[in-house]
Specification:
Helix content: 25-40%
Distance between the termini: 45 Å
Shape: globular
Order of helices and strands: EHEEHEEEHEHEHEHEHEEEEEHH
Radius of gyration: 20 Å
Strand content: 15-25%
């Protein structure tokens, strides 16, 4: 039984007062007992939160009641419990860190709905480009997709030469929920690629609406599930244990906080090596206790979202 829900969403739209919106979002999430991460920036809103269905529905209604976010599309997944342990709402310069000199509101790739993407991705004139981080596509990706060995989106310009010879092809970018593709596809257009598309709603929406066929492995997510199933037609596991090479879908953060590497680690190696990815990490004096999940949050004694909100308000004077 999965009595909880996870919401994933984003919206590029001008925000005149990000600090005010942050406080409004914080109060709303406290009222609805939602946990998760939300980023507010002058360029828009980006979030993923978890809670009970009624509370998630109330959150969707409240967000869409704001004219700026009336068209926001929410990807909704069922889950067994809260997928976050805290509530974090931050004001940042971008809703997804990129440093790319583009504005998705001015120019971006053509959006493809899941059914359109499914019909188009097998075209021999099409190239799928995964613009996620290396640890994400190591767990799962579309068959035949081009991947980059990058840690984050700001490194995309360093890898563009890998596909420079494909400018005459139809390029379809994809990511987890669609947000990175808005900027990545815009950047490709600025670099002379002419036929650029993006999977609208990303891998998650494709799995929910089109069954996920053609996606190999699992999709890495940024909550305590770490990865989720996407392919409901012919699921596979493509990731291998970072230590022993055994095929496994068990994903962890290294128990060494200095390392904190995102890697597949089979349960046997996780137990044998205290959740670390290398022997050197095992000697970290700040080594975190490994409980089998490989998911860690900062420890805060008696933390509640309300206390976090009050503390920030006091710090503002």
């Amino acid at each position: 039984m999965k009595p909880y829900r996870v919401l994933l969403y984003y919206c590029y739209t001008p925000i005149a007062n990000p600090e005010q919106l942050r406080d409004e979002q914080h109060r709303l999430c406290l009222k609805l007992n939602l946990l998760g991460r939300i980023v507010v920036a002058p360029e828009g809103l980006n979030g993923t939160v978890s809670g009970l269905p009624a509370n998630c529905n109330a959150y969707i209604a409240a967000v869409q009641a704001d004219p700026r976010f009336a068209a926001v599309e929410f990807k909704t997944e069922a889950c067994a419990r809260h997928t976050f342990r805290k509530l974090h709402i931050r004001v940042k310069s971008e809703i997804v860190y990129s440093d790319l000199p583009v504005n998705p509101l001015e120019c971006t790739g053509i959006h493809l709905e899941p059914a359109q993407f499914k019909a188009m991705k097998e075209d021999p004139d099409v190239v799928l480009v995964d613009i996620r981080s290396n640890y994400e596509h190591s767990v799962g990706k579309f068959g035949g997709a081009v991947t980059f060995d990058m840690e984050n989106l700001r490194e995309l310009p360093d890898h563009i030469q890998k596909i420079a010879h494909l400018k005459d092809k139809k390029i379809i970018t994809y990511c987890t929920g669609g947000i990175k593709c808005e900027k990545a596809s815009a950047y490709l257009l600025s670099q002379g690629f002419e036929n650029v598309y993006q999977l609208h709603g990303g891998i998650i929406k494709y799995g929910l609406e089109a069954g996920g066929e053609g996606f190999d492995g699992q999709c890495y997510v940024f909550d305590d599930r770490l990865k989720v199933e996407v392919n409901q037609v012919d699921p596979t596991v493509i990731s291998t244990c970072f230590r022993c090479g055994t095929v496994t879908s068990h994903m962890v953060n290294c128990a060494s906080p200095v390392c904190n590497n995102h890697v597949p680690l089979c349960e046997a190696c996780g137990d044998a090596h205290a959740g670390t990815c290398t022997d050197g990490c095992k000697h970290d004096p700040l080594l975190r206790p490994y409980d089998g999940t490989g998911y860690y949050t900062r420890k805060t004694v008696n933390y509640t979202p309300e206390q976090g909100y009050k503390s920030r308000q006091l710090s503002l004077g």
